[in-house]
Amino acid sequence: MQANSIALGSGAQGAVEPLLRWAGSKKKLLPVLLAAVPADAERYIEPFAGSAVLFLRLGAAHAVLSDLNESLIETYRVIQRCPRAVWERASMLGDTPEDYYAIRAVPREHLNVFERAAQFVYLNRYCFNGVYRTNRAGQFNVARGKGHLFMPDLNAFKAFAGRLREAELRCSDFEEILGEAATGDFVYLDPPYALGDKRDRGEYGCDAFREKDERRLIAALLAADRRGAKILLSYSPAATVLQALKKWRRHNLTVVRNVAGFTAARRSADEVLLSNYDWSRG
């Protein structure tokens, strides 16, 4: 393995947990995803960063984490530079339901950059199931969650910031990021599922991913494939994607999803991993 290739995180640094809870996180699929990481990749690229759970388990010295969610990327950039400042502000916020809704009601434009980052982390940690949802006005409107909700300690913020310093953070559309991928790059994508005729509930921001975006994604993936990038895609078994990428390797998975926040409400969902290179699940 080359010195600058992607490797699993190990040694003194150890594994780093995501700082954020994120709906659709692939944390439970990490063993499968880690088995699929190519050993010869020189740069890691993730166009739908979310909680960056796979990145945190890789020892990638060169990485690009991107997301279209401006608030998410701004929060990551502030934590990357000043984890203590964000932790101090976030840990001072009250944890009662009344506190949550009062903090949620504060407009982001009324806060400075450290306060905005603290508010984002706080709302994520205390909201229902780590869902990010906004209304048409762009206001976060997720209800408070239940169960064991807490703010991570300072060491967790510092460890997360340390890993983020190994990545370039971008707020960009996936098409732009994929347009840069070429030979030597490993791209992992976990996009929202296109809604089709389902009502847009704003879980990833209003109009975050529609059928037109699915078509753009397919075209961008095929172009990156032609440039030599190694690509791994997590997605629903959508007929349009499966047909367009029918020459790619396919691995069928069953994922347990927590629908209502309670064990009794969990259900299984079909998902596929599509890759343009060979790998073995062992």
Proportion in β-strands:
15-25%
Unreliable stretches, pLDDT < 50, 5 or more residues?
Answer: 8-12, 259-263
Distance between the termini: 20 Å
Q: Do you know the CATH topology of the domain at 76-157?
A: Adenine-specific Methyltransferase, domain 2
Specify the number of helices.
10
User: Number of DSSP strands?
Assistant: 7
CATH A-level architecture of the domain at 76-157: Orthogonal Bundle
Helix content: 25-40%
Assigned CATH superfamily of the domain at 76-157: Adenine-specific Methyltransferase, Domain 2
Order of helices and strands: HEHEHHHHHEHEHEHEE
The secondary structure category is alpha/beta
The major beta sheet can be summarized as: 7 strands, mixed
Assign the CATH class of the domain at 76-157: Mainly Alpha
Structural Rg: 19 Å
Q: Largest beta sheet: what is the strand line-up?
A: 3-2-1-4-5-7-6
Looking at the structure, what is the overall shape? globular
Mean pLDDT over the full residue set? 87
